[in-house]
Design a protein that fits this description.
- About 40% of the residues lie in helices and about 25% in strands.
- With about 250 residues, it is of the alpha/beta class.
- It has one domain: 3-Layer(aba) Sandwich (Carbamate kinase), CATH 3.40.1160.10.
- The strands form 4 sheets. It has an 8-stranded mixed sheet, with helices on both faces. A two-stranded antiparallel sheet has the order 3-4. Strands 6-7 form a two-stranded antiparallel sheet.
- Strand 3 and strand 4 form a beta hairpin.
- It is globular, with a radius of gyration of 17 Å.
Length: about 250
């Protein structure tokens, strides 16, 4: 794939909470299919709420350490079934029904996302090496890759991976034109709870120091800075319920 084509790729991270609502999911996927006719699109998804539902059904305890799910072998078995099975194939089927062609994979397929284990939270990994061969092959054949957030380590073990991290490293490796995080909020908000439409990466630290950016938004915007520094042209944080036909939220760029 030529370098100029790589610049047009959009990577979208689709949140588990948004994916759960059928009407919201269908609206987003219709817009995704329309976008895919103009430029290559990659969809990365999590599935936290659905995982919680199934862990409860099979009576496996779900606990978190610093906001990250502790993943033992029993939890991982459910996580993989839900992410790469139910959630991934539901999304793939709905995209196909809308007239496009999607292929569901995880970070294990094609050795796409090799990870460093994070043993303090169980069978969890941080992406360490990205192999884009499979994803590029799918894009070249006009498929929409739908990636569930699982990876593997040097021993071949399956690892649970944060979906934001999967989207970020995939976008960086492809030097994507856009990385879009669909969230439950309308971007980064100022002190008056109004959306800040654009932020330059050299402005981020002051927003954190001034406590305008707080809590869970801090790691997200720092990830955006890292992505832009590593070649992604612009990173969007948008309210997923408003769709992607016209991006409304915060764009972070150089």
């Amino acid at each position: 794939m030529a370098a100029k084509n790589r610049q047009k790729i959009t990577v979208i991270k689709f949140g588990g909470s948004i994916a759960q609502d059928p009407a919201t999911r269908r609206k987003f996927l219709k817009e995704l299919v329309a976008l895919s006719k103009k430029e290559p699109v990659i969809l990365v998804h999590g599935g936290g709420p659905e995982i919680n539902t199934w862990l409860a059904k099979v009576q496996v305890e779900s606990r978190f350490i610093n906001g990250l799910r502790y993943t033992d072998e029993k939890v991982l078995e459910v996580v993989e079934m839900v992410l790469s099975g139910k959630v991934n194939k539901t999304i793939v089927g709905e995209i196909n029904a809308l007239g496009a062609s999607a292929v569901g994979i995880s970070g294990k397929d094609g050795k796409s996302i090799m990870c460093t284990p994070v043993p303090r939270i169980g069978l969890v990994g941080d992406p360490a090496m990205v192999n884009t061969t499979l994803v590029k092959t799918l894009l070249g054949a006009k498929f929409i890759p739908v990636i569930s957030s699982l990876g593997f380590d040097a021993r071949g073990r399956t690892l649970n991976v944060n979906a934001d991290s999967v989207a970020m490293v995939m976008a960086m490796s492809l030097k994507s034109h856009r990385l879009v995080f669909l969230t439950d909020v309308s971007g980064v908000l100022d002190e008056n709870k109004k959306t800040i439409p654009m932020i330059k990466i050299n402005e981020i630290q002051k927003l954190i120091d001034d406590k305008i950016v707080t809590g869970g938004m801090i790691p997200k915007v720092l990830a955006c800075v890292r992505a832009v520094k590593r070649g992604v042209q612009e990173v969007w944080i948008v309210n997923g319920k408003k769709g992607i036909a016209r991006l409304e939220g915060t764009v972070i760029k150089k």
